[in-house]
User: Fold this.
Amino acid sequence: MPPTDTAPGTPPSGLTLDPGVPICQTDLPLDWYQEEFRPYAEEYLALPDRKPETVLPWLDRYVRRAQDHFGDELLLLAHFYMGGEIVKLVERYEGAVADSYALALQAARNPEKKVIVESAVHFMAEAVAILAHEDQSVWITNPKAGCTMEMLAKDFMVYPIADQLIERYGDDLLVVAYMNTSGRLKALAGRTGGAVCTSSNAHLVVDWARAKGRKILFVPDQHLGRNTADRLDMDQSKLVTLPDPQVFAANYTLGDGTIEGGTDALDAAEMILWGSYCGVHTIFQPEMVRWWQERDWRVLVHPESPLEVVRAADGQGSTNYLWTEVMNAPRGAKLVIGTEGHFVRNARNEGAKRGVEIVHLADIPEEGMASAGCGCATMSRNDPPHLAGMLDLLRRGEAPDLNRVLAGDSVDELSGARDRLDGAERAELIGHAKLSLERMIEITERASKGS
Assistant:
């Protein structure tokens, strides 16, 4: 995979599909596909196997035609976590594979790309759309590809609680919205003078917010928030975690009966954490870390993991950090990675080429220990039939409007139903959400220059 600041068109890094190894993709049932995509799924399901030598000629029929049709105006994007070998497929077709920070910048920094197709989750495509130029269109291969963390922090859940906090603290409250949120929450960050953050720059953004002397509402990942506070040596007693949104949603009043420590704890808090989390990273336990360390492995984890896991690990950081550690590890190194399963699988393949042994943190060969499985199931909803169908339908001028991503769109991950803002509402949202993203970019780039 190219590093996150690699521009489209950079020669592939050599992350290739193994010709004899089936593509890691659980075939989706036909009724999971939009009607327009079912013919492509039927063709894919009818293939004799999932080996690249079978899948690639079939995929070429659609992707190469679209590339010939759109020329240099077409840009394919995928996130590091994408399953079904999509990262390798997108890279094979000269697309960009990166973390959420770099993906968000792709449209804005490549104005010549007019048709942008992303194989990732909806909030990532929406971030691209927020920063895109007016003559660029952003499409997602599967609009029902979501994120469990973001699903537990929908605007209708967060807004009522944020409104109570704003009523109580006024301009003293500032929202930091993790990239794993909808544009509607990024706009909330913008309206309150806050910023977006990613796992790679959360410490920079939170440090910037603290310097303003304002109370922070960190949305949505409680673990990234807590780990960021720990990295900045914040007093953990000054953190308040809001109730589990699976239990309470937005149907509660902030007070002594719903918040541990009650309103006194809220008033004393430096940072208030929304109670969401990533299902992939919360399976990790500090006992897993110690099991590998006792056998002389170096353990690296993603900061969406629980605080105790991050403290026990030998290193922690974003997907870009984890990938860089793999690529720079010396021959003979033994690395354990605690993050999404598809990412670790790709890292294992790359490590093997360099004489580096890599395993998944949860893959402990003992009874009762968790297994990594195949990775993030929601990201895996973007599969080869969706990529083939999206590009072919775009080429033919028949792309479903549901796959077009506009700022402010809210899609139900189960039904596919979409709530779209009208033009005036969308323009207002873009103004606030873009401001929060631009603040993040400014903070990050200033830090990278050492100023």
